[in-house]
Design brief:
homotetramer; 446 residues; alpha+beta; Transcription Regulator spoIIAA; 2 domains; 6-stranded mixed β-sheet; 5-stranded antiparallel β-sheet; 16 helices; 15 strands; 42% helix; 16% strand; globular
């Protein structure tokens, strides 16, 4: 045995990829910094930071990933999450739609009659969403918003008061949207406090690393992967990611999803977040914007990451190993074999990988074939040792099948040497398989 | 060993789920049959069929799943696929956008100046898409469209001539859209032949099983799972699924994706297709439509399937087993252990399940820790036996890491007892690991 | 008595004013010639002709007032007149609105549901209007249109076949509008023949003098002042002038009426007509157009004419002589006196000028005062010798008053030495005064 | 000679006509009272008042013509007049357009980029117009508005404080419009004070008689016919009447002008004003509104008045007596004769009635013919004794002709026994005829 091999501790293919993206796009000086308020206009146009946080909690970064800027519209999905948590999806949907409008960020887009804004990612919808956050008083509402943003970022976030005052002083279009909604009855809180809170939430200070952490929290089912805190419920993150997928990049949303294929959100200060569900979150910062209000380098770098990492949501990884393998007295079977065989009076079905609908269906078909063609010996062992993840639909399908086989007089046990209980319930089926320990005891009484 | 156990050959949890959905919704008589042409108006309003085709090719069905009807707008995503294949994504995007418009199926939605329709799922965009299909003559264009639809369905599809003639005779709004586009220069073929072909493609006859097979072809990366034919390129199916996700259900698209979470498309004759990528396709038929032109029972049953099967695209399966396990002289390690250890002078890293970004990152971190803390013996074996699927980004990350370790003088071999070559190249990294056979020979020369 | 004085026969203040306008604007080379078809694009950009035709039938002209060009949209008000005459105002209003849309000439502007275009001056409304012209066949429809245009112009008008063919070949936007209306059910004739006829009517050849004569026909209550022919009913001309006032200049209509104050219509070939009701019509030709599609010099010269001639419809001529005067033994009374006095046993009320509501009211008040204060002798003579025009409302008011005085036992006679019968009936009152000849015989039996 | 004849002092054909209209429409109970604030909702739905004020100052009324209600949107044209007077037409046009939008009263209708509202009759345009009224402070601005409204009405008008407070409390849509304009930079005063003043002006209390007087002030060139005060400049009234003609009745404006043919304005409390220029103003009050926000009975009665009185702006009174007559030794000539003849060495041209373009042209043509055919004796007398009104264009044309004849050596004098100076200057011609007194002295030195 040789001694430790000097592998460079700085070896980092993910960070390296970010560094290469930074180098590649740092000279792209297209677009202009937003200047409707002086505080935004004075941003350094050359600033460019990237960060990626994986669901395991590691941080990768390049460029000015620690420079602070105001979060602006990137607050919207997180406040939407808070409103969903506070009042529930039905109450939120009644007041704010989820329909992409193909319109600019400041479009009016209110449903005739009800004043319901099209979606929570345009300003009107965001102001209304903010008003839905539960609070006894406006100040408490903002503190609850700041709290959820901070917990997603994993650190207490501050507010840029100068930006807030300036937004407040020049935000007449947003104030107009609020008055239109108040008139139509969709906005029911006081208009001035609603827009005040909205301007405050837009003025929260973040870095690219904060944004990446926030995005990773969404990628990780609502659990901040750096702090381990459960900030948002998994269902809420699914809803937020859906709206980001269809409405997150204003009137570029459709093309963004087509090209980049990740739920995302951009802000006027130059930030962009993008989420690869169950994998990681990205945060980018580059203040020069294109004509739709999206960060030029943020969009360009995101497209490059998505293409190089093949991250498009609809990407289908073509070749798949079978979800189960036949194991018998003669050793492991070959791929694609037609089902479990006996192994010393016990049929064994060894499943592996991510059990989804398709893999569960494969197993089902094999079990049926076996039942028709040969039947089972007294016991069927379903070995889940190499199962890494189990989708509810797979659990439900397998469970139903187990019940049917048991009804035929066969003892079925699911084994997992680590005691993991992988199968869970879904809405359609009742899951009622045995505990793993109990299975083992029946299988291997010695 | 007991003899064959009499498991009912009709045992079928998937088909059973469809039967329950059929029973649950068959009495829902809301909505009205489209009647703008007599041929649609005479449809049996009570007809209701459901079918599901998995990526393994099995067919599940309930109700009138073999009743024929005209495909109507459900032809759009498949003709879009054909156009993408024929002229390429850039040429198609230049002529038809991918931006959801939040508008009805017959909206005008042309970009000012260019006459470019918003997306290929509204009629204007569909007519333009049809015109992009390569053909020497209009008749050939339609035959190529019928051919791709038939190959996705797995059988030769016919045309309802009466519907075609009636659509042709009453289709002045579509004709108007075509003339607007021809005027603006976005439609460059002859207007009458463009709409004639479009009406013909809408008049192709299908069943719910056909639709499910077509959807499953999209779910399966373009390979018809029943015939095994590669009908569409994987990249094209990703693009088509993206557009179905944002624009497939007209002005209900955003809410559909929010609630159902599956790329889908509906048609005025009462058909609906929905796709669970990499899993299955669904086809539904029920001719009574809601006010947005979507099949009432088709939408209701789809929502139920999605909720019960937990099929939402953004659903994140929470608990995941680790992607690798430590195996050493002392037997398999516990979960979450910090990396590979030596096994008789050889360190072994046994990976399992679906290798994605997150699982590759886990392995990377473990390999780095090991390199820092203990170093490697002369050889590192990466055992891919239980890897079921490998995302390109994971392949790339691992490959880069292998290179770094090899640069430190350690022999790295990737093993797979079945000779599968799982690692593939991506745009970012160059993959250059050895063939599995070669690895084995070096590890186990005996 | 001196002999004939040599007043220059060329003396002509109206023609002189046109000459000055021509000189003033001939060098204005702003704007561009329409070039969507080559036949329009080849127009001489410098061409500039002006013509004015008074209701007495004289023609005044300057510049290239005899150069021919295609009438284009200026045909619209005249075809609208023909449709109103053919099917009546209610049937026309049901199919085409009269609401200005503030939109461009080629706006879609169809009422949701009905497909009723906003007004007959946008293309959609004009195509629909053309389809309402009564005809057994399309060819007859066009000939009836050409006939009414020719009779308004006072000469047979030809068609520019090259322009027609080119419009026909490139007119897909208009064809689209027609198909949209046919689809919605507002256009009920064959689409192709409707647009064919519309393109033909746009291709009729006119000169600035023709346009001025056509405008003068509208100014003159439908009687062509040069030929004396009654081409249109007075009511129809009022309706046409109203629509020209609100919708004639596309999205410049409101500002045109504000600045110029005359009902008008422009065409893409550079023609403009404007009407000063009861006074004259103007025709202008200058093919360079502004961004709204109106002739640059046509608009500028019209503004100048209106301002210099004080022609704004809403201009109120301030000072007015009284509508009646007191004539007695002591000679003509002074202005503003309180009514008729006796003249040898006979009270005389001598009216003068244009009897409108206001002047009739003045007389009414005087007659009432007289009745209250002094009463009438046996006879009241109302002398209408100097009345030049009588509005129906004035006739009605006076007639009612005459009846009341007669009911008091006073003989009332209205005299007019020329036998003119000026008082006419209106909808509100019944007019029943004696014939003038009869009055005279009773007043002056000798 | 008989004594005074007992003509009933109550004899009143105009008032009688109003009474008949009241009786005819009082039972029409279609429509609903506006109820967006309780103060409007509590209006008596049966209230119905009509009033007419002629340019001579008499008041005619029927029904509840003295019941007070808030003026609401009918304030808009008068405040527009005040703004035009304060800052001039160019400055006003730069900030508020004059283009009818075919849209509802509360439409947003702001020009992209500039935030310029389409016209001053929609709420956005009215709020902006109000902000243009010159004032050192908001309170002064409202007092100046109340002052102009009061002077048009002929009495000091009060404010309904309850309505004001309620409008202020519920006027969020108007507040939104103001914020949109403030954001776009078109509204430059403080938003809250702008809408406060606007709500106050809407809360001014009027009666139908007040409205009729205000309308009559516009009909009378800006001079209140009851008080004789010059409230508005004539040019301003022309501009206001034009905008009322195209934009006064919201999205019914085009059809109103088509059917009723009078500049008008309606308000949400049920008031309507209509103006017959140079004749009279009408005020109506009936609070039940149609779906466009116009008073049902107000519109119906206005249509009836217009039709029965033949008041349509575009109505052309057909038959006209000649504008001049030949008077010679042989007595008065017949109609239509070809010009002036000699009368004892003097040619006399006796003009009569309203001298407009057409009548002046008639005289011009006759004078030219005479000059060509016979020439003039030493003097030409133009007798204006029976001229009742003279349009500037007629004055200018005649003056130019007189100069030409004088240049030929003929003495021309214009006579008017009352010393009226009828001919005035216009922009095109220089008027330089002699004073009437001087003329007489030369003609009749005895």
């Amino acid at each position: 045995m040789t001694g430790p091999v000097p592998v460079s501790p700085s070896f980092d293919p993910i960070g390296g990829a970010l560094e290469r993206l930074h180098a590649e796009f740092v000279d792209d000086d297209r677009g202009s910094v937003a200047d409707y308020i002086p505080q935004l206009g004075s941003a350094d146009p050359g600033a460019f930071g990237l960060a990626l946080v994986g669901v395991a909690g590691s941080v990768y970064e390049a460029g000015e990933s620690e420079r602070t800027f105001t979060i602006q519209s990137i607050s919207k999905p997180f406040v939407y999450a808070l409103a969903l948590a506070d009042v529930g999806v039905d109450a939120v949907l009644e007041r704010v739609g989820v329909e992409p409008s193909g319109e600019a960020f400041n479009a009016i887009s209110l449903e005739p009659g009800t004043g319901r804004p099209s979606n929570p990612m345009i300003n009107a919808g965001a102001i209304l969403t903010t008003s839905l956050v539960r609070a006894a008083a406006p100040a408490e509402r903002f503190e609850r918003i700041r709290d959820v943003l901070s917990r997603c970022a994993g650190r207490p976030l501050g507010v840029d008061d100068a930006v807030f005052r300036s937004e407040h002083g020049t935000g007449d279009r947003n104030r107009a949207l609020a008055y239109l909604m108040h008139h139509a009855g969709s906005l029911t809180t006081d208009v001035e406090s609603a827009v005040d809170t909205y301007f405050r939430q837009c003025s929260v200070l973040v870095t690219a690393v904060d944004l990446a952490t926030m995005a990773a929290t969404l990628a990780n089912g609502g659990v901040n992967p750096r702090t381990g805190e459960e900030v948002l419920a998994p269902t809420v993150t699914e809803q937020v990611l859906t709206v980001m997928a269809t409405c997150g990049m204003y009137d570029f949303s459709g093309e963004w999803l087509f090209r980049v294929g990740l739920p995302a959100k951009s802000g006027v200060s130059g930030g962009v977040v993008a989420v690869s569900p169950s994998q990681f979150g990205i945060g980018l910062y580059s203040p020069r914007l294109d004509e739709r209000g999206n960060s030029v380098r943020g969009v360009a770098a995101s497209e490059a990451i998505s293409e190089r990492f093949t991250l498009h949501l609809m990407h289908q990884v073509g070749r798949t190993a079978p979800a189960f393998e036949r194991i018998g007295p003669d050793g492991p079977g070959s791929e694609g074999a037609a089902g479990p065989v006996t192994d010393g009076g016990v049929a064994v079905l060894a499943m592996q990988g991510y059990l989804e609908f398709a893999s569960a269906e494969q197993a089902l078909l094999a079990l049926r074939t076996r039942a028709r063609e040969g039947g089972y010996p007294g016991a069927l062992v379903i070995d889940l040792d190499h199962v890494t993840r189990c989708h509810p639909v797979a659990a439900a399908l397998l469970d139903t099948m187990i019940g049917a086989i048991e009804a035929g007089g066969v003892t079925v046990v699911t084994v997992d040497r680590r005691g993991r209980r992988l199968l869970a319930s879904s809405g359609e089926f009742t899951v009622r398989h045995e505990a793993v320990a109990h299975c083992r005891s029946r299988l291997d009484p010695a």
